[in-house]
Amino acid sequence: MLRFILGFIGAVFSVVLLISFFGNVSTYLTSPPPPSAEEEFHLHPKPLHLASDGLLGKFDQQQLQRGFQVYKEVCSACHSLNQVAFHDLEGLGYNEAEIKAIANQWQTEVPTVNPETGEASTRKALTSDKFPSPYANETAARAANNNALPPDLSLMTKARHGGAAYVHSILTGYRNQAGYKNEKGVELLKEFPTAKTPNGLHFNPYFANLNLAMPPPLTSEGQVVYAPGNPKPTVDQMATDVSAFLVWTAEPKLAKRHAAGLWAVLFLLVATVLGYFAYRNIWYGEKAVVRPTGALDPKNQVKARSAKRKAGIDG
Amino acid sequence: MSFAWAKPYEPKAPLMRWLDERLPLPRLVYGAVGGGYPVPRNLNYWWNFGVLAGLFLMIQIVTGIVLAMWYYASADGAFNSVEHIMRDVNSGWAIRYIHMNGASFFFIVTYIHIFRGLYYGSYKAPRELVWMLGLVIYLLMMATAFMGYVLPWGQMSYWGAQVITGFFSAFPLVGEPIRVWLLGGYAPDQAALTRFFSLHYLLPFVIAAVVILHIWALHIPGSSNPTGVDVKDEKDTLPFHPFYTAKDGWAAAAFLTVFAAVVYFAPNYMGHPDNYIPANPLATPAHIVPEWYFWPFYAILRAFTVDFILPAKLWGVLAMFGSILLLFFLPWLDKSPVRSGSYRPVFKRFFWLLVADVAILGFCGGAPATPLYVGISQLAAAYYFAHFLIILPLVSALERPLPLPDSISSSVLHGEKKEAAPAGISPRRGATAIAE
């Protein structure tokens, strides 16, 4: 009885699913979903290789310092970095005095309370402060940016598919929309005249919906002046450096993790090998294979079975 | 204890004898760790995953307790407290990544453990309660994992909580009040976060308690084995210690190596990038997906797209809960007296079809809800229900199983390597078996 009830329930679920399936197929055939500009023109990030990639990757401190310079001189005008403190810059190879100077001269001051009047006020940043946000609050940020909110950059390379490569592609991916064609040679505005980028947005095929509120932040070579001995600050170089810097802000412990991982895996491999031999040793007496002979030999059993079948004996 | 030859605890040291007479704690520990517990000698490596699941429960509890020392269950501060653990707490990044990936690996070993039970008929008499207690553990694990995923209060945390508690509103009349009552508000907020944290801390200990029942119930009939043949006498078994402690030990080290490789070199591989964006009730993510271990059920939920008598959403929710609840009836759906799938040629084919089916459901559940993936999951979900509720009872009634070996030791002796972990037995024992 139980099995009949359950079988009935199973049949009901399966039938409803099949009805759903055929409904789905007929809708698809009668009114297929129209192709969308996002589907046909959105690009995956270009490959990007950084020193921190790979199983044992470490940060290139020189590059991180350049990336920090790009953040400081370009990005920090709009984007906060609220998970990172000034003293974390030690990880970039700066010494204490340099970090103190960076904090002291930071363009935005830290909100505080005037100790005498109790009024809202600001003070210079200390090394223990997190990077102060360029805007007092979300409303101020939106008001200054055509109602778009510049996201915090601390975790950007972990919070997007593609990570650092995505950041690099966005920064270098702005295109002129007029006459833009994809790899197949289809022209975007001819195929989708309604997909024209609205005023105040900027066309960028690496962005999910192709239109980004952020204007191109890196526009010309030498926009940031690197100290002598560094590579030429082309747009691509600056974008690469700031992407590397954002990998560090998202995961400052990355190099430490890689180094610890090597030892953890090696330790466990040794434990596995030792454990395996201990297991073989303990099972030694129970594992020795006996070759079955006589009536128990599988070959003889097959012979015996076919002989029985021929003789018409069951079993 | 399981078999007549299972060795009861005999205290050796005087202190232990003194203690055992007054408080049989040593006896309890001896029994719990499997001392003197005879185990079929032919277990293969699929039998290692129960111990591994217990190991991951321990890892989760230990790392979780440490994380709770730093975590701050507040809608304003939860996200930042997790980042504080990742950046400023000594080795906090390691503890948090172990906990985060430990959940995934706990599900990996549990799924292998469940499918091993399905293939070798471990749910059949006399182990029905072992199976059902295992399903209770699985349900508790799902609740714990879901609530744990909400705690970092990222975008997927928030919207996952929104979607999953939204299931209740599919039920007419009572659904919406229940949802509001469970959340402590109309949408996930401080009240929901605090209670999820409280329950996320409580449930692992409930799981540990049910694990004790699961093992206790297992130790009555003893472990099943790859042939599914009952243990007949002492030469079919080996003591758990040292034989299976050694085997479990090296298998655990091997599995932990894989685990460590993921924790240290690809810790975010199984996560979703959106959960590194702080929760924002005003911005819905483009694709809301749960963690990978819920994908098959998510696919079943989304597969119902037609309002047939009941609303589609209610169908989806009923089917999703039903897809797990039906497993409780498995011992009575599959009436075949043969336990092991190795001796059931028809069952075996359908079993592998089921494995493929669940994998397809999982893939579709993680993919965006396009007509193609929804269509595939509709067929796959239909097969899922048909498999357990229609095909399995029919197969068990109609199938003609292969002849079973007389006993475990004779199957080992026949060189049935596929079923037998130790490919042979010792000359001493072999000689007596042949003589018999």
Relevant terms:
heterodimer; A: Cytochrome Bc1 Complex, Chain D, domain 2; 4% strand; extended; B: 436 residues; 2 domains; two-stranded antiparallel sheet; 2 strands; 61% helix; 1% strand
Distance between the termini of chain B: 28 Å
Mean pLDDT of chain A: 92
Strand content of chain B: under 5%
Q: Which class of secondary structure composition applies to the elements of chain B?
A: mainly alpha
The main pleated sheet of chain B reads as: 2 strands, antiparallel
What's the rounded overall pLDDT mean of chain B? 91
Topology overview:
The complex is a heterodimer of chains A (315) and B (436).
Chain A: H1 2-30, H2 37-41, H3 61-73, H4 96-104, E1 110-113, E2 120-123, H5 138-144, H6 163-172, H7 188-191, E3 202-203, E4 211-212, H8 235-250, H9 254-282, H10 284-287, H11 298-311
Antiparallel strand pairs in A: 1-2, 3-4
Chain B: H1 14-22, H2 25-32, E1 38-40, H3 49-68, H4 78-87, H5 92-119, H6 128-150, H7 155-166, H8 175-183, H9 190-219, E2 237-239, H10 240-265, H11 295-303, H12 312-325, H13 330-333, H14 345-366, H15 371-398, H16 408-413, H17 427-435
Antiparallel strand pairs in B: 1-2
How would you portray this structure in words?
The complex is a heterodimer of chains A (315) and B (436). Chain A is mainly alpha-helical and 315 residues long. In chain A, 44% of the residues lie in helices and 4% in strands. Chain A has eleven helices and four strands. In chain A, the strands form two sheets. Chain A has a two-stranded antiparallel ribbon with strand order 1-2. Chain A has a two-stranded antiparallel ribbon with strand order 3-4. In chain A, helix 3 (61-73) crosses helix 8 (235-250) and helix 6 packs antiparallel against helix 8. Chain B is an all-alpha fold and 436 residues long. Chain B has two domains: 38-288, Up-down Bundle (Cytochrome Bc1 Complex, Chain C); 294-404. In chain B, helix 11 (295-303) runs antiparallel to helix 12 (312-325).
